[in-house]
Each structure stands twice: as structure tokens, then as C-alpha cells.
Amino acid sequence: MKLVTFLKSGEERLGLLAGDVVVDPLQAAGDRAVFSSVLAFIKSGAAGMTAARAILNNPPKAACTALSDVALAAPLRPATILCSGSNYKDHNAEKANTPISGKEPEFFVKTADCVVGPGEPIAFDERFSKKIDCEVELAIVVGKAGRFIETSRALEHVFGYTIVNDVTARDRQVRRTPEGMTWYELGSGKAFDSGAPLGPCIVTADEIADPQKLKVMSRVNGELRQSSSTANMIWSCAELIHFFSRNFTLKPGMVIITGTPAGTAWSADKDLGGKGVHQPGLVPATRYCLPGDIVECEVEGIGVLRNPVAEAMAGAGRVAAE
Q1: What distance in Å separates the CA atoms of residue 298 and residue 316, rounded to the nearest whole number?
Q2: What is the DSSP secondary structure assignment for residue 289, as one 8-state letter?
Q3: Max Cα–Cα distance, the chain, nearest Å
């Protein structure tokens, strides 16, 4: 099942995606409490899934709208996004690394303030950063609460999966000493307005047979910058759930992002430790993102998250999302 959040009369509503049609469960005489938001639906558990499947099996015509006729918002605005950096070996090979890179997950946090939806602009403001980079990442949506979750049972806590673009201000993230030591300022470099485009939908876990067998890609202005598989993660989704649950009680609606593969613009930035490694089949970046660029992040089985880069406060409109 695919879930979206769409705008109706200026209000955000939960939608059930059936091919190229959005079904409004509140229009289908559904339980208003269960279908009042994506978060409410996640918390409803098996009862909500059963009710949603019944609606999708026979959706009333009045509840159906073509996907092309609706504006999508972020399907979820998680209060907490738990983030794992340096989780692909090929990404670690293209950049300067800290002493823990590849040895343990690099732990940082983004918040709901960072989230924008499909088609919403990634803000570019030189007063903040001149080196805005984009990273496609598979995102885990937590469905069942837990603390100290065993890896062997971790996927039982997953409601579904979505896509997050881990937008990064590289000139704020990377710090280097004259002696060549590198460390990361992950707060300043990762958490900021429009730093977490999220969407276009959430796919429930029952439709993803194995989260470690998904193709992940990103394109900038149609050029393929990243292309890999979640099979190349250092720590699996289950291992990341276990890792983060040591610090937090994971709650329904929390999101965990799982790292990005090679192909970032950072790889071409020798001043910040980029190693210029060329990945076969990819178009190597020659610069960071600038206003006017269109960034597409794609994960197999979920869809394409598309966002323009725009001058801050430029009022850029939405672009089509798939």
C-alpha cells in the first residue's frame, strides 16, 4: 500500500494511492480518527490497514482524484529523523573520513523543521552555505514502539519506507586541521530549513520484500549522479534500528535514514577532502547544487522525489512529482 499526503482546500489530507489515482479515505466513509492523518493511520496498526484495504478494494468514485490533479505534501513530518552517515563503502572511498567512518554509524538528527515535500524548493542562501549537496537515502518509517530492539526482530517495528534527500551544507559540515585531520560538524552541516525533502509516498513494509535489495539513484538536471543498491550498506536497516533504539525509545512515525552511496558533489571538492573517484556509469559532479537545478531521488518500489533548488525566499512553485 502506498500512502500520500495531499492538499485539499488548503488542508493536508491522508490519501491512499491506487496506481495514478488518490483515494481520500475520509470521503469513503472511513473511520475519521484512523484516517485523520498519516501518523494516526500508522498508530492504528492492523485495524487501520484492514480498513484501508477494504476501501481500496471498492473505492467510491467521489473519493477518487487523479494523482496529476492533486498537490502532494510530505507524506509525514516526523518530529525526529535519526540519521546514519558513512553507511556505504563506495561513498566513504570518495571523501575525507573521520576516525569512526565505516566503523560505526555516524549518528546525527534532523527535525520536522527540515522537512519539505515533493516539488517544494531546496533553499539556496549564500549567507548560510555555498556548497549545498544532495544525497538520496532510503528512509525507514517506524510503526511499532520499542527500546533496545534486537536486530533479529527489528523489521517487525517497521511500518514502511520512503525517500529522504539528506541535503547537506558541506562547507559547514567538513572541518580539517592543517595536519590533515578531518571531523564533521553534523549539527550545522545537516540540520537546516529544507534540509530533508521527504516523499513522495510511504510504501508499507508488506510491499518491500527485502529492504536490502533496492536500487537507489539520484539525478541532477537529468544526469545520473548516484546509482547503487541498499545491498551495499555497511549496516542494514535492521542493524540501524537496533543501533538507534539504544538511545531512544523508537515511536510510531519516527524516521531513520540509512546513508547514501557514492556520486556526491563532495567527491569533486578537493578543498574538503574529495578524492575525485569516478564511478562507472555515473556522470561525475563538477559543482555543488545551484538555483535552477532539479534534483531527483529515486528508490526502487517507492518512486521519485523531485525538488528544485531555488534562491531562499524566491517563492519557487511546485514541480511535478511521481
Answers
A1: 22
A2: B
A3: 67
For the chain, the domains span 2-72, 76-311
**Pairing status of strand 303-311 against strand 122-124:** parallel
Can you give the pTM of this predicted structure? 0.94
Query: CATH assignment of 76-311?
Result: 3.90.850.10
pLDDT interval class at 179 (50, 70, 90): confident
Kindly provide the b/e burial profile for residues 50-84, where b requires at least 16 CB atoms within 10 angstroms of the residue's own CB.
ebbeebeeebeeebbbebeebebbbbbbbebbbbb
Q: Which three cell numbers stand for residue 215?
A: 536500487
Q: What pLDDT shows up at residue 200?
A: 98
Amino acid sitting at position 179: E
Residue owning grid cell 495514478: 20
Cα dihedral 243, 244, 245, 250 sign: negative
Which one-letter amino acid corresponds to residue 3?
L
Q: What is the CA radius of gyration of the chain?
A: 19
Q: What is the residue-wise DSSP string for 115-156?
A: EE-TTPPEEE-TTT-S-EE--EEEEEEE-S-BSS--GGGGGG
Cα angle, residue 1 at apex, residues 208 and 30 outer, rounded to 5°: 155
Half-sphere exposure of 171 (CA within 13 A, CB side): 11
Could you tell me if 199 and 298 are in contact, meaning their C-beta atoms sit under 8 angstroms apart? Answer: no
The answer to whether the beta carbons of residues 117 and 77 sit under 8 Å apart is no
Task: Please give the grid coordinates belonging to residue 3.
Answer: 500512502
Distances (CA, A) of 180 to 7, 104, 220, 301: 49, 21, 31, 41
Q: What are the C-alpha distances in Å from 111 to residues 78, 150, 177, 194?
A: 7, 25, 30, 10
Residue 284 to residue 264: CA distance in whole angstroms: 8
Q: Report pLDDT digits (tens) over 190-215.
A: 999 999 999 999 999 999 999 999 99
What are the tens digits of pLDDT across the range 66-102?
Answer: 999 999 999 999 999 999 998 999 898 888 888 878 8
